[in-house]
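so i finally got all the pieces together for this one. its two components total, 890 residues if u count the protein bits. some of the lines might not be protein, just check the labels. i wanna see the whole assembly predicted at once instead of chain by chain like last time, that was a mess tbh
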Amino acid sequence: MTLTQPAESAPSAEPPKATRRPGLPAALKLRAPRNPMAAYLLRRLRQSVITLFLVSVVVFAGIRALPGDPALALAGEERSPEALAAIRAEYGLDDNIVIQYGRFIAHALTGDLGTSSRTGLPVSDAIAEALPVTLELAALSLLFAVVLGIGAGVVAAVRRGRPEEWLANAVALLGLSVPSFWLGIVLVLAFAIAFPVFAASGYVPFGTDPLDNLRRMVLPAVVLGSGLAAVVMRQTRAAMLDSLSADYIRTARAKGLSRREVIGGHALRNSLVTVVTVLGLQLGHLISGAVVTEQIFVLPGFGKLTIDAVFTRDYATLQGVVLCTSAAYILINLLVDVAYSVIDPRIRLGGAAR
Amino acid sequence: MRRTAVALTAVVLVLSTTAGCGSLQSSATEVGGERMADDRPVRDGGTLTVALNADPDKLDPSLAQTLVGRTVFAGMCEKLYDVDQKGTVVPQLATALPKTSPDGRTVTFSVRKDARFSDGTKLDAAAVVTSLLRHRDLPGSARATELAPLDSAVATGPYEVKLTLKQPYVPLTAVLADRSGMVMSPKALKTYGKNFTNHPSCVGPFRFVERVGGDRIVLVKDPKYYDAGDVHLDKVVYRPIPDGNVRLANLRSGDIQIGDQMTPVDVRSALTEPELQLFNSPSLGYQGLGLNVGNVKGLGEKPGRIDTPLARDARVRAAFELAIDRRLINKVVFQGMYEPACGPISPESTIAPGVTASQCPERDVTEAKRLLKEAGVKTPVRLELKVSTTPEHSRLGQVVQAMTNEAGFDVSLRPTEYATLLEETDSGDYDAYLSGWSGRLDPDGNTASFLKTQGAMNTYGLSDPKIDDLIDRGRTEADPAERARIYGELTRRVNDQHALIYLYRQKNYVVARKDVAGLRVYGDGLVRVKNAGYAR
């Protein structure tokens, strides 16, 4: 699991601007619709298409730069020259790389991502089966991280210098430093073998059996969410400390608001902008695959799909998966930017903030 | 570098003494002898979940290439012939062993009259012919090489098949006891064509229901199966769980009932669990160390000259081999749970060439040093050893590094990811690498492709007319005693080249929960679930 820990230094009282990315040249902006929200979305959509195109090129070329090809990885120990040649011909691996790319894009635009060279299953099926697993795992671990992280962060900030803060800090440090592989195995030993409350592995769709689904998803969500909870806790704490010392908090207290209203309604709400930024970035990581967590709990999600595709040089699957995760990344970033304006009405979309 | 080697030797020595003590410990932690079957009575019903160490490839017997895939086929695709507990070929869909004409070029057999494919159609001679020709001719077929000697196949009656061979081909029966002998439903082949892999239909105790890539393959009992009375389970689920620790944890929690291909380390911990039982059978394969003696242009190309002491002079390679202690490797790296080996043909094979583990050369550093001196090479002789990224291979690499260092070799290890390793060794871009083979029933399947000049998997660039001749003779000799003599001679000849240094033979370890009975694990390493179920 790779959790990039954002810098903990609290931002200034002024919340970050929504439009952090450079816009397109002015000429393009002129033709944008008048509705600032629509114009903003349109501009972001254009950028997304370019990003997706670049990603597809990089992935396509990148996996082909690795030694070995699907034919070889597939043939494994039983390779014979005739079989290798036949497999290469079947997947068009002998063609010029530009032609191969053109074929891939032409098919991808019609929604056909090809078939896996290893299993012969359609890539879109593999993605459709892995996506619910990954989304649920991401959502549950996010929930775990938000509840634990924000709760502990607020407590740590409000009870600054007291034992509660030390405890919260200690837990956060533990969450960050314990390797997820170890944590996963220990949780399985404790809660699936010694006290069999949860299952050790596998995935059952929520629609099939909600209870069994949760029985299998709780432990992975805790493992995956623990690192994130720590990051969220530290971010919340820092932002809360900042907010609590701001003038408007003193004003709020002076006008006689209850402690709960001051902390919940004013301090926390202002702190959430930073936290949401962090969550958005981290959610991207969760979607692109919690490889280790999926490995321990044998969950057929995106992480496992990606890693297997790299090792078996399953070009079609890897390309499909990376395209999907890139699209998800872009979408999440967009949602995060929209979320800013909901949390903090001072942030205006489009040109207003500039 | 030197200090590392000394330290490693120390580690090896410490480990070996503790491993030595290990064998004196209580019997609860002992593996014991071979255990291939469990004959307790079984009740009907239930689902069995089998964890495999990788996701199988295509479920098409013509295209399939993985060992885990063969295990899944064992549940749903029967073959013309099968192997029994003793490693003997026995009829499965065929009614008797094949009859071969005196000139060895015509083979006839008949097939069962009561077998139906999972799609309900009947098995007959025409279906067998369709499958055999597809195995041989389908582009990309992994069976094409082993069925190349097959000239024609015809149905001479509703259930009688006649095969004509281009030349006598003794390994044929053993070949028909593997995927080449699997018969696919002609109707399913016609309906699905290349997409048969997603709708496989054969004769088998269980039939295919669904596959979710990377997650599971589900089979259910086939009521139309000719021996359905002996099948007890309702359902079998195969799940890929690559990590051994995770497989063991799932066995203990009861989420899976059978763990396939367990490593010695996992087996050691499984032995202490009262609710688990262990099956083990000797393997047909081998594991060794391949040296590049002439692979300059890649697989299938004419071997050339490589100007390194190791490739130039067999004495240097002999010294390398003499510096290695096979018994110690088995003790230290594999907890003493595999077998030392010094030949390509397992004692479990249909032909026993009589080169057993006890005849492996002992480690002799003095002699190794003398050979290096006689060859007049400058020591230390440097070489790079490519190993895969598994913990077992990296430990094995370290032990070989430490052992050969004492004789005057300077081995550097390079862990290499699997597909990259294949590419590099195929193209001849290596000095030495850990080279293994899962094994075939007939000795030909364990020798020809690897040792024959320009053989399909001769990554070593080995080329010796005497070896080529012995391989051809082994293939056509019908008399078992004479065949055993030929393969014995072949083994000695190959060992004299020191290009492929055979080190050890794995064992197939399968761990199951105690309440699972009726399981079979034979020398081919496949988990046979046909008669399995929950103990009564």
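Chain B has a mean pLDDT of 90.
Residues 78-192 of chain B form a domain with the Dipeptide-binding Protein; domain 1 fold (CATH 3.90.76.10).
anyway lmk what u think
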